[in-house]
Amino acid sequence: MDNLIGKRLDGLYEVQELIGSGGMANVYKAVMRGQNGPVPAGTVVAVKVLRQEYMHDPDLVRRFKNESKAISLLNHPNIVKVYDVSVNDHLQYIVMEYVDGMTLREYLNERGGKLSSRETVHFISQILKALEHAHAKTAVIGISGGLDSCLALLVAVRAMKQLGRPASDVLAVTMPCFGTTHRTRSNAEILCDELAVSFTEIDIANTVHSHFKDIGQDESVLDVTFENGQARVRTLELMDTANRTGGLVVGTGDLSELALGWATYNGDHMSMYGVNAGVPKTLVRHLVQYEADIAASAELRRVLLDILDTPVSPELLPAKDGEISQKTEDLVGPYELHDFYLYYVLRFGFGPSKIFRLAKAAFAGRAEYPDEVLYKWLRNFYWRFFAQQFKRSCLPDGPKVGSVTLSPRGDWRMPSDAAAALWLAELEQIPLKG
User: Fold this and answer.
1) Per-residue pLDDT band at 120 (split at 50, 70, 90)
2) β-bridge mates for residue 28, sequence order
3) Considering the entire predicted model, what is its pTM?
4) Is the pLDDT of residue 131 over 60?
5) Cβ distance 356 to 431 under 8 Å?
6) Distance between CA atoms of 422 and 352, rounded to whole angstroms?
7) For labelling, which of 49, 204, 249, 360 has a CA lying 20 to 30 Å from the CA of 397?
8) CA 328, CA 133: separation in Å to the nearest integer?
9) Residue 310 CB neighbour total at 10 angstroms
10) How far is C-alpha 370 from the chain's CA centre?
11) Residues ≥6 apart with Cβ < 8 Å to 287
């Protein structure tokens, strides 16, 4: 007979019967008998007791203590409540809510060892909701006032609605620095206010100044170190904010940026879940436009339309006369061209010559896209696509939204040292009028 049955633990919990056993602990049904306990006298509770043979194993004791601390912080209908924790040299136990009913094993045995698809979905959905609550109390997003972070924020708010959680569980963080303009900073705050998410500002300028001093960066030199230093500081702030709030960092980079490598390695390139990773920039625009069309208020519609009208920019170089000085499409080319090229590379595996012919047909009549411009950006696409594979080889998880994606765990497997020589050589053979 178990030597705990019939005894009172710390004079409070009268153990009645053993109801379960696990690798580290036994679980007992007990009744609250004391008058000064955490629940009324007579309350039936479940008591999880660390087995005696493990009482002197420091690693297992530490794990048991950590478990008690973790679950005591949670409050969710699909997670049992913790009423009390006792830790001493002779006994370690956790007092939890007692849920009367059968075990899953008993339930399965009643049904011949199988669950219907409806029952399976029902149980799994409850488990997932509990896990989601336990592991991600907040969704942390760096909000810049630009297009990609706008879409990521809209997605996060919709996700919270689907989960029955408040929009305030989304924590939007704006991190102004040297290139931030009044327009984007203002749009970021207005957007967050209209969506009713939690909002905070972290001015990273002092941290960046300190970092540049540490590494000996001359701040008058506006080079790649000047740009990437800011991006990596922002990621540091987001990651640690997520740790502090028990959340995860939602990445904002899109499929087009991944294809071109237009992201700072281990900066905005990194997150805990990249919601836009399967969405090309041209589709990002359509999705934000759709949200503007169905906006719940005139102010939300106005700010979404202004975000759409704002030039795409990482805002890492100082603004000029209060305006964005660094425009992405001036540097890497028009996204509508790159998305066109990317689709036919990934979806059909077409070579440069065929894609060039298709582009000439698709963009015929567009004065801004003569043959030499199509050729220039196609060459640029191939050069960047091959040179930037190392960033795609270590992407965070993200959804596949359309028919193509660049996830190294799914559709696209490519060595980081792959060379573009054969593709560029084929481009060299294309005759251009001139």
Assistant:
1) low
2) 18, 47
3) 0.71
4) no
5) no
6) 10
7) 204
8) 38
9) 18
10) 40
11) 151, 154, 279
Tokens of 165: 């959680």
Give the Cα separation of 15 and 28 in Å (integer). Answer: 7
Torsion sign, CA atoms 103, 107, 112, 115 = negative
- Of 227, 214, 141, 147, the closest CA to residue 179 belongs to 227
C-beta of residue 32 within 8 angstroms of C-beta of residue 39:
yes
Residues 352/399, Cβ–Cβ less than 8 Å: no
Residue pair 207/231 in contact by the 8 Å Cβ criterion: no
Q: Name 141's Cβ contacts closer than 8 Å, sequence gap at least 6.
A: 149, 152, 153, 156, 170, 171, 172, 173, 238, 249, 250, 252
Closest CA to 150 of 121, 165, 170, 136: 170
CA–CA dist 248, 292 (Å, integer): 27
Token representation of residue 72? 């005591």
CA dihedral 286, 287, 288, 294 (to 10 degrees): 110
Kind and range of the H or E run holding 95? strand 92-97
259, HSE (Cβ side, Cα atoms, 13 Å): 27
Angle at 140 between CA 135 and CA 146, to 5 degrees: 150
Angstrom distance (rounded) from CA 251 to CA 148: 9
Q: What is the largest CA-CA distance in the chain?
A: 97
Count Cα atoms within 13 angstroms, Cβ side, for 312.
Answer: 22
Residues pairing with 170 in the sheet? 139
DSSP 329-351: HHHH--HHHHHHHHHHHHHH---
One DSSP character per residue, 69-81 reads: HHHHT--BTTB--
Tokens of 23: 């690798």
CA distance 10 to 76: 28
Euclidean distance between CA atoms 29 and 14, whole angstroms: 9
pLDDT tens across 288-343, in order? Answer: 999 999 999 999 999 999 999 998 887 777 878 777 767 888 888 999 999 999 99
What SS3 state is found at 59?
A: helix
Distance CA 275, CA 141 (A): 11
